[in-house]
Amino acid sequence: MKNINIKLIATISVVIILAMNACKPKNAGSAVSGDAAKKTYVAPGKYDEFYNFVSGGFSGQMSVYGLPSGRLLRVIPVFSVDPEKSWGYSEETKPMLNTSHGFVPWDDLHHTEMSQTNGEIDGRWVFGNANNTPRVARIDLKTFRTAEIIELPNSAGNHSSPFITENTEYVVAGTRFSVPSDNANGDVAINTYKQNFKGYLSFISVGKEDGKMDIAFQIECPGVNFDLSHAGKGKSHGWFFFSCYNTEQANTLLEVNASQKDKDFIMAVNWKKAEEYLKAGKGKKVPVKYAHNTYSDETHSATSEIKTEVTVLSAKELKDICYFIPCPKSPHGCDVDPTGEYIVGSGKLAALIPVFSFDKLQKAIADKAYDGDFDGIPVIKYEAALYGEVKKPGLGPLHTEFDGKGNAYTTFFVSSEVVKWNIKDLKVLDRVPTYYSVGHLCIPGGDSKKPNAKFLIAYNKITKDRYLPTGPELAQSAQLFDISGDKMQLILDFPTIGEPHYAQAVSADLIKNNQVKIFKIDENKNPYVAKGEGESKVVRQGNKVHVYMTSIRSHFSPDNIEGIKLGDEVYFHVTNLEQDWDVPHGFAIKGANNAELLIMPGETQTLKWVPDRVGMFPMYCTDFCSALHQEMQGYVRVSPAGSNVPLTFSLGKTVPEATK
Amino acid sequence: MKKILFAFTFCTSIVFFAGCNSNPTKDDFSTEEQTTETPTSTENGNPSYDPKRGEGKFTKIDVAATLDVAMATSGEKVSGVKCSSCHKMTDEKLVGPGWKGVTTRRTPEWIMNFITNTDAMIDKDPAAQAQLEICLVRMPNQSLSDDDARHLLEFMRKNDGVK
After folding, report:
1. Measured between CB atoms, does B136 come within 8 Å of chain A?
2. B52 touches chain A (CB under 8 A)
3. Where does the pLDDT of residue A259 fall: very low under 50, low under 70, confident under 90, or very high at 90 and above?
4. DSSP code at position B141
5. In this complex, is the C-beta atom of B29 within 8 Å of any C-beta atom belonging to chain A?
6. Is residue A64 within 8 Å of residue A51, measured between CB atoms?
7. Can you give the pLDDT at residue A492?
8. CA of A552: which chain B residue's CA is closest?
9. 3-state DSSP: chain B helix, strand, coil percent, rounded to 5?
């Protein structure tokens, strides 16, 4: 019966699509075939098959979509403030955005990477990188919230991040903009790049059980731009591969000056070797300053710690950690196939795709098949590491993902297409246009050992005419392809937030049953919790007034407060007493210079409010909670400084009683 | 009218046999995946709906003639965190009805089922539905443990004068 319904709807959709096509000029829309609606339709009340974690680009956030419907499920605030969720506005979340530069309210989140066990996505965490003020964030997939953010010293432009090793031993971060190290004098002429600028790669260890991040070590490398990276897997586990450009070491007009050489590099890093050197005490402890912020679901608050030391290994001095492999024309994507044998480099300006062999690389290192060195790092002969080249695949290859069936899928920005090719014989099998100028792509598990290659999502850089126009700024766009057959088939466009860069997708079964639904009120360890209305109160400490407030459908306790004076700082510590799923309460007060609070069941969150004038200030619940939601309100009376109105608070009494 | 509605709901639930989630409103968030409306049997195999017992896991609660003071004290604590925001100890209605006399109006089983299986009971139990028409706020499920529920019952008994 259900099937018939779906078929009926699908048929109707097909008819509509056909009808539309009949009276429309041939354009991109006609690339969609008739059964697309059936493949992407998820009936009301039904779940999507996949979660899709998409970078929010310059929004600084991470978005979560359901696939195949393309429905937006949640925007997780990560590196940018979000007044809707009080992220960076509540007293409890402010420390999450602390850095060595102080509070930073915005960043640019480029890549997402999910934690893995044995090379397979395990559904525990998803990581994101901050490109501008270099940081890495870990998001807990039980709560879909940012649990931890760590800043990276000696770095600028954390772009080749947050890619991980196959058991999530490390998350890496490589500096895009080489700079003088943090404890060197940075006040030097910019044109001293070659002498003074260095590139640092950070290896952040991840706690096996709790996911806690810590910078295990950094590797100091020559000053170039580190662009993207991926870990080895299987046979190449223990190695990491980073693409590098600007090996010209230009410091101006990079568009021209960093595009001079025929080949730049992919840098192969033997991180197991680096670990050995670290154990042998070969690292130098260097004074730096960086923030490490963690959020606790017990205290419902964040702490920020400034750390002051990092251990650095020198790639130049410790000869056998790093090797350069020449790679044509400003390589961007650096992707390792599911077997761990093939490393695909994608030169942004190239018209071919080089595929390197891990076995050949090992042999080249053993044979010392070098072409000299670059700033003390051996450069392996191109042919000695090369498995082969995909000839004339398209223009401007960027990124590659894999289907686990021996095929690779590469995006081409300049020729605006996705090309499917066979890894073994390097032959092109299929190509489809994208609308327009595709950047990253994602196949569920497509950079892991076990891809689940039902769909491919292309994340486009240009949207142009794909949606209803909305002035000069248009929706960002993703496109969904069915890749279950020999030919790729476009089945859906869906708009995204910010600019979508890299994304990850995974079967919903791995995540959907692990969700935290409420926080247990008995386990709430926030110092300002009120466990029940009996504990609600207002306490004055000098000019600071702490309101221990509770909310339950549908009233606050207390809801009448008098005796606040101009010059006071008022802290509303609101505890949501509900213990049922999906019953948040909100809190807002007139004139607050920050945001609302959105408090989940069993949680305590704090809004700071500094009244700016004498008068009556209403407060109310912002999240529709019950039939009597509109009644969930209260008043705060603000008197002049020096007024003798006593501090009182009450609920359900028209005349406030004096404070005990 | 009610009968027609019921018939309609019943037919719909056959068509979408996966389940008949009676339109969840913002207040209706059962922690269970689905609540199936099967008027003839309950989860624990109870043959038919018993309005005295309610619906839920509690079928027989042994209550002593005298008060268990320890349980009542624990129940009072639970009440302070999870119940007293909306219920007074007197017979005065606040958000929900006052607790005075509740242990004489309802059986121990009904009370414990209602406070632990709230959504299902509000959807089905005539007495709970009658209260909803008065209060207009669906009682939230406060995630009480079985012990919490038993202790609350004892506290309600204390409030009703059991010594």
Report:
1. yes
2. no
3. confident
4. P
5. yes
6. yes
7. 97
8. B85
9. 45, 0, 55
